[in-house]
């Protein structure tokens, strides 16, 4: 009888890939986790209980067939595991690296609830697809036939690229417009290399380009080309811009030199990693080397900033968050990694002002948690008289992002938006109030996760194919 490869969680403990020491991590921007060896990947995949109701799958935005590809990995059938994995996910090796698994699949693992430690789903997912690339199992995009219809996609982030992949595989002509000089959106310029090395993203962009997708880069829609021009050139248009307008602080001294936006800071750092010339980095404006750094915010962007500052050689890095640790929106795993690397977290702390120009201190107001707000979270409120100064040479504002006013910027008054400024789009299809125009990802949801953008892009591409097919049938009558 063949040996049972699964249900090993009783005898085998949870074991992540080896993590480099904090001291080694501080020296570079390489990813912090090593790759699983084949035997270790099989062992850890074999801890899956193959439960009848896989909560890991239902809590994954893409509903990945996680138990199936874990079983195939445990059985040594890695190519089949990859084939199952990529059926539902355009970029599994990216999700394996940057998804907050502790809040999604792994956080809902049945054996975790039973006290055995979750299956290391993300690490196995990364291993499967990295191996697929190495072994040549990742097939090029090669549609069986070409269609005459074309789709213009505005935004080369995860939502736009996922949609482009689905559309090109169906033979639809695709042109992707993006304001940056490289595709990838925040995966390229927002997320640091220690979480997502850039060759992983560029490899997917190259796959799309070789598969016939056209990229029009350094193209700011509304300035370099109008929205109407794009609409007139294509049978359908997909808005996948993400949200890039930074939320700001209102506090005395906030305009001082040395107080910068997270998106500018992270983009500069990532450009340097590409070998680009970045004057703002060279001048020290967007470089933490030798500085006392304070980051304001508690989300994943704030975690990216504090950990980047450590690697740039900051003398100290402090994160101010107005709520406590249990109520912060960022990944707890990222907080733990940051603490290991030397970041100091000041919980229940908010900036009430800034001293000096250039900035030399942050006035820190201590907070307490009061009554719940509309979302159910306890609202932070200031403790009277509890203010202290924290020295700072560089302050990074990581307070989240808001949508740009596209109806005005693109002269599209009929493009309906919500009261939050996000584009109003139909659930699961992305259809907007403009005929033939769809929208996906953060520009619809507000700032969210890469995995949700991929889901939206795939869903909208399916709706576009359905609508193009319907239009073709009407034209043929």
UniProtKB/TrEMBL annotation:
Name of this chain's protein: NAD(P)-dependent oxidoreductase
InterPro entries: DPD_II, FAD/NAD-bd_sf, FAD/NAD-binding_dom, GltD-like, Helical_ferredxn
Sequence ranges assigned to domain FAD/NAD(P)-binding in this UniProt record: 151-457
Entry-linked Pfam families: Fer4_20, Pyr_redox_2
Stretches assigned to the Dihydroprymidine dehydrogenase domain: 25-136
Keywords linked to the UniProt accession: 4Fe-4S, Iron, Iron-sulfur, Metal-binding, Oxidoreductase
NCBIfam families on file: gltD_gamma_fam
UniProt key word Nucleotide-binding: no
Domain of life assignment: Bacteria
């Amino acid at each position: 009888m063949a040996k049972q490869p699964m249900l090993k969680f009783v005898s085998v403990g949870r074991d992540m890939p080896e993590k480099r020491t904090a001291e080694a991590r501080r020296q570079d921007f390489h990813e912090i986790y090593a790759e699983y060896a084949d035997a270790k990947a099989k062992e850890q995949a074999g801890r899956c209980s193959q439960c009848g109701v896989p909560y890991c799958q239902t809590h994954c935005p893409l509903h990945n067939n996680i138990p199936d590809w874990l079983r195939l990995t445990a059985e040594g059938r890695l190519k089949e595991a990859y084939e199952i994995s990529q059926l539902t996910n355009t970029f599994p090796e990216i999700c394996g690296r940057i998804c907050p698994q502790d809040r999604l699949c792994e956080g809902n693992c049945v054996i975790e609830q039973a006290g055995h430690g979750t299956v290391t789903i993300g690490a196995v997912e990364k291993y499967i697809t990295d191996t697929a690339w190495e072994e040549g199992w990742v097939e090029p995009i090669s549609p069986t036939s070409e269609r005459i219809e074309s789709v213009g996609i505005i935004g080369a982030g995860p939502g736009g690229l996922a949609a482009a992949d689905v559309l090109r595989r169906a033979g639809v002509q695709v042109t992707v417009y993006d304001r940056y000089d490289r595709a990838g959106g925040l995966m390229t310029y927002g997320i640091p290399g220690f979480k997502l090395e850039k060759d992983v993203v560029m490899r997917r962009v190259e796959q799309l380009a070789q598969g016939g997708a056209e990229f029009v880069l350094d193209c700011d829609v509304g300035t370099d080309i109008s929205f109407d021009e794009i609409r007139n050139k294509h049978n359908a248009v997909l808005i996948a811009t993400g949200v890039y307008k930074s939320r700001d602080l209102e506090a005395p001294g906030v305009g001082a030199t040395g107080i910068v936006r997270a998106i500018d800071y992270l983009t500069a750092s990532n450009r340097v990693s590409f070998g680009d010339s970045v004057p703002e980095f060279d001048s020290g404006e967007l470089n933490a080397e030798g500085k006392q750094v304070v980051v304001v915010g508690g989300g994943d962007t704030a975690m990216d900033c504090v950990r980047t500052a450590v690697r740039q050689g900051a003398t100290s890095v402090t994160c101010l968050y107005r709520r406590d640790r249990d109520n912060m929106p960022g990944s707890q795993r990222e907080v733990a990694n940051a603490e290991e690397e030397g970041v100091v977290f000041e919980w229940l702390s908010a900036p009430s002002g800034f001293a000096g120009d250039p900035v030399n201190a942050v006035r820190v107001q201590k907070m307490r948690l009061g009554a719940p707000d509309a979302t159910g979270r306890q609202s932070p409120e200031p403790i009277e008289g509890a203010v202290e100064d924290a020295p700072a040479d560089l302050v990074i504002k990581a307070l989240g992002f808001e949508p740009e006013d596209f109806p005005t910027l693109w002269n599209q008054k009929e493009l309906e938006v919500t009261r939050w400024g996000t584009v109003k789009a139909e659930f699961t299809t992305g259809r907007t109030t403009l005929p033939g125009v769809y929208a996906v990802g953060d520009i619809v949801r507000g700032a969210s996760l890469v995995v949700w953008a991929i889901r939206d892009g795939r869903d909208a591409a399916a709706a576009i194919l359905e609508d193009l097919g319907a239009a073709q049938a009407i034209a043929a009558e």
